[in-house]
């Protein structure tokens, strides 16, 4: 990455456009504001923060796990869309950055990411023309994307020819599964797609890939069996294409979100002549919901599982009924698509984890807290755990980083800029 581009974010001037930035920071650069020693008490509500110690732990833990497993990691950058966090992942040894669409790729290129895996099919002629120019301008730019149909291959080849592409675009044939998202349905169909890629002069067959997380959403025996079955099929596809790859370049086999990366390693890491690339992304922030329950490091009883690094902070604004409190954070501030926030504790007050207190609904700007009794009076600030980090970062253009969310008075040590 271009370290200077990331470092330059500290020179951005704060103002009212950043809803986490307090008025005392307005007119100052990020660097200048941090030099004043702000603490959590300097910030208002609603608020989303990152725990710096947990972030560092998660990055190191995943890097060490992949190194021991003998696989590469290209973390999915769409989780955070935060170049500073991408930089930390790359510095820890990540092979590259995965992204989901072309606008995200352009953000990564603006910050100098040199190895990108686009976990999607790119068919937009204007986008393919931009990509062709980018590949020509930078011989060191390594780019992979997916394709899952012969028609998609035809359209890509047609657009790249029209753009006068000088370097072939490297593609992975995507294998899907029944009821899943994209991906050729079945190994035979995927082999046909690979044959079409081999006939297209503007494309180069670089391997196979897919996403097992679209086929299961739990760690039941049935869910894990579904994932294993899919991964075995992906391995079979790799074997069927063994003679089709260019000599001297190990073909990529890519799978793995943050829920089943252990199974990916068990089923694919030993494939002959395969460069296995995981694409886990949510692990960096982890959560206090979906991933807390399904992460391999939780299921496997690891000594150092991932830690939830995201916290919401919301103030009790109203107590209209004895067992109902309304908080000043809602859907505009916190994720809600895969589990509601959970009340963890009252700042400078009672622990809520393990009590009957729970959030039952979110409106645009309010959360409904029930059964907290006298533990959450009007004006109290609550710390909330959140579920599914992939829909948390997009709600904030700048997210304060705390030294530790568990400290009596957490210090603000950074401000993570996002680009959605």
From TrEMBL:
Its EC number is 5.1.1.1. Keywords: Isomerase, Lyase. Residues 309-403 form the D-serine dehydratase-like domain. InterPro entries: Ala_racemase_N, D-amino_acid_metab_enzyme, D-ser_dehydrat-like_dom, D-ser_dehydrat-like_sf, PLP-binding_barrel. The keyword Ribosomal protein does not apply. The keyword Lyase applies. It holds the Pfam family Ala_racemase_N. GO terms for molecular function: alanine racemase activity. It is an enzyme of class 5 (isomerase). Belongs to the DSD1 family. This is Alanine racemase. It comes from Kitasatospora cathayae.
């Amino acid at each position: 990455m271009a370290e200077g581009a990331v470092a330059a974010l500290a020179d951005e001037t704060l103002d009212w456009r950043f809803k986490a930035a307090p008025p005392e920071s307005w007119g100052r650069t990020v660097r200048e504001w941090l030099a004043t020693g702000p603490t959590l008490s300097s910030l208002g509500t609603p608020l989303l923060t990152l725990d710096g110690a947990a972030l560092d732990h998660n990055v190191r833990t995943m890097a060490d796990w992949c190194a021991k497993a003998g696989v590469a990691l290209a973390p999915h950058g769409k989780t955070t869309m935060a170049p500073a966090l991408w930089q930390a992942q790359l510095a820890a040894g990540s092979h590259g950055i995965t992204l989901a669409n072309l606008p995200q790729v352009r953000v990564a290129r603006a910050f100098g990411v040199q190895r990108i895996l686009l976990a999607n099919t790119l068919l937009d002629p204007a986008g393919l023309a931009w990509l062709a120019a980018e590949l020509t301008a930078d011989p060191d730019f390594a780019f992979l994307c997916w394709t899952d149909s012969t028609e998609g291959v035809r359209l890509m080849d047609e657009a790249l020819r029209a753009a006068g592409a000088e370097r072939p675009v490297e593609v992975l044939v995507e294998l899907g599964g029944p009821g899943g998202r994209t991906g050729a349905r079945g190994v035979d169909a995927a082999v046909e797609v690979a044959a079409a890629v081999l006939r297209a002069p503007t494309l180069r067959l670089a391997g196979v890939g897919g996403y097992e997380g679209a086929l299961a959403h739990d760690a039941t025996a049935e869910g894990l069996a579904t994932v294993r079955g899919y991964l075995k099929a992906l391995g079979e596809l790799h074997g069927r294409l063994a003679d089709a790859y260019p000599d001297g370049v190990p073909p990529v086999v890519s799978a793995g979100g943050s829920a089943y990366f252990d199974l990916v390693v068990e089923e694919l890491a030993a494939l002959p002549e395969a460069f296995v690339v995981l694409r886990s992304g949510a692990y960096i922030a982890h959560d206090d919901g979906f991933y807390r329950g399904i992460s391999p490091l939780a299921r496997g009883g690891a000594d150092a599982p991932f830690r939830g690094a995201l916290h919401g902070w919301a103030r009790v604004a109203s107590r209209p009924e004895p067992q109902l409190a309304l908080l000043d954070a809602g859907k505009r501030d916190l994720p809600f698509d895969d589990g509601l926030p959970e009340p963890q504790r009252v700042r400078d007050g009672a622990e809520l984890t393990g009590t009957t207190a729970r959030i039952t609904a979110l409106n645009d700007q309010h959360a409904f807290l029930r059964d907290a009794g006298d533990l959450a009076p009007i004006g109290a600030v609550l710390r909330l755990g959140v579920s599914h980090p992939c829909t948390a970062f997009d709600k904030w253009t700048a997210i304060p980083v705390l030294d530790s969310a568990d400290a009596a008075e957490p210090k603000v040590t950074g401000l993570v800029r996002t680009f959605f």
